[in-house]
Amino acid sequence: MEKTDVLVIGGGATGTGVLRDLALRGVDAILAEQQDLAYGTSSRFHGLLHSGARYAVNDPESARECRQENAILKRIARCCVDDTGGLFVLLPGDDPGYADDWFAACLRAGIAVQEIPAAEALSLEPNLNPALKRVFRVPDASIDGFALVWANVGSAAGHGARAYTYTRVDRIIVRDGTVSGALVTDLRTGEQRQIECRFIVNAAGAWAGQVARLAGCELKILASKGSLLVFNHRVTNRVVNRLRRPGDGDIIVPQDTVAILGTTSVPVDGPEHLGSSRAEVDQLLLLGRDLVPGLDERRVLRSFAGVRPLYQENGGEGQRPQDGRAVARQFALVDHERQGVRGLITVVGGKLTTFRLMAEQATNLVCVLLEHDAPCRTAVEVLLPEATAAQVRQLQRYFSPPVSQKMAERLGRADLDQLLGILSRNGWKRQFVCECEQVCLAELEWRATGSSWLRLGDLRCRTRLGMGTCQGTICAARAIGQLYQDGMLDLGRARRLLGEFLDERWKGNQEVLWGDQLRERLYARNVYLNLHNFQKEADDYGL
């Protein structure tokens, strides 16, 4: 049995943001997540750090929140943000009157918006549709959801908080109408244990309704699935939005070495609907080529999907919205005392861009109920301190200047200290496991060491291993081989983990198998059949 003041359920941006906020205020807290961190919507989106412009017309309150949080995150989480800037593009056939309404709404929301000549836009982004009519600059950016969530947990742990992954909450214990704890299961060992607490914050996103029911409460969540496509290089260097009311296939976001086109909006029954259909892929490609002519002829690495947890006061969980885009993107803070359960709070809805604000307001309520008087510090304290110039110079002993700079931007100061420590003892570990994403042996070793239940998918989320052009064909086998050689895995588990990893990659590959991607898949089949003799794995996992 463990004891804490607050148990946070959900390991996405909001849940880890609540954990960090509580820890910075000196409140003892534990987080429980049923999978790895960022398993849900926080990693299954296009990576857009909203300026607010997308919601300026239909949802001005969300637009103002996004504008405010955009500025804060660019300041406190620079290692997670690529400040690309953004463009809104009016294309032939789109309503010119909407452009004027949108511009006025942006100004009312305080969003920095500037119209630029079409010729200037095409010089900045030559792949754009040359027939564009009007173009506006906005302060959009891209953000790495994986890095953000892990940075939240790292900061929280530095202030005494604990985060347990692969820990499923089976029951919320309520005595005399008041939360007193939760019964959880460690999915790695099957062990059950009890966590005693005074309050529970339900930040489970698309699973929030299921968590609320564990305490006998009702939460009205509408689930809307959004599918996206990943291209094998940056089609644009800025976020590009189509200047019309939000719809399918109207945004391209550069994300590290790739570009993401999204999204669709399909009503689903719950959060388990995480696959993309071929019809959605075809629709996105058809719409995306309006923004970038010939986009449908470029190489698509994979498709993926996430489920938006949309909260409606008068809706009902499981009710399928006809148009998820019509639901406001504002978040809700629900105190379930009105349903007869004291000590249970749910924070749901919103956007990843507003996660910090959501966490702040949830933590404010918890602190009032705890009678704990401490101000929020998450808007001013840097989440992930940047690498120093001295660290970058040290990296350059092992890597080229461009690679060193990229690694420094991705890892931050504390993580680089760990990496440089390994390299100083074993310089040969500068060899790359994954050339696409520039993940070296030293980083792989450091991320894997001390893990009580190692999975390649978890290492992918921490390092970007397997996210590049080969989609893990080469680097997955290298990584497994190195971990086996280092004694972290036995042979049976190594084969199982490789199979799991290939299965996850296959789920995103199977709907985009044409052209170069199909040739890549056939190459992968030959690698695993002829070099590794993985006949069963090749048959089982789509190779």
Describe this structure in words.
- The chain has 543 residues and is an alpha+beta fold.
- Among the domains are: 2-40 and 146-220 and 327-370, FAD/NAD(P)-binding domain (3-Layer(bba) Sandwich), CATH 3.50.50; 431-540, no CATH class.
- It is built from 16 helices and 24 strands.
- The protein has helices at residues 13-24, 60-76, 96-108, 118-124, 145-157, 208-213, 278-291, 355-370, 389-395, 401-425, 441-448, 456-463, 475-485, 491-509, 515-531, 535-540; strands at residues 2-3, 6-9, 29-32, 48-49, 81-82, 86-90, 114-116, 134-138, 141-143, 162-164, 167-175, 178-186, 192-196, 199-202, 221-231, 239-242, 251-255, 258-262, 266-268, 300-311, 331-335, 344-349, 432-434, 439-440.
- The strands form five sheets. Strands 6, 7, 8, 15, 16, 17, 18, 19 and 20 form a nine-stranded mixed β-sheet that branches.
- Helix 9 packs across helix 10.
- The chain starts with a strand and ends with a helix.
Structure at a glance:
Mean pLDDT is 90; it is low at 315-325. Strand 21 and strand 22 (344-349) form a beta hairpin. Helix content is 37%, strand content 21%.
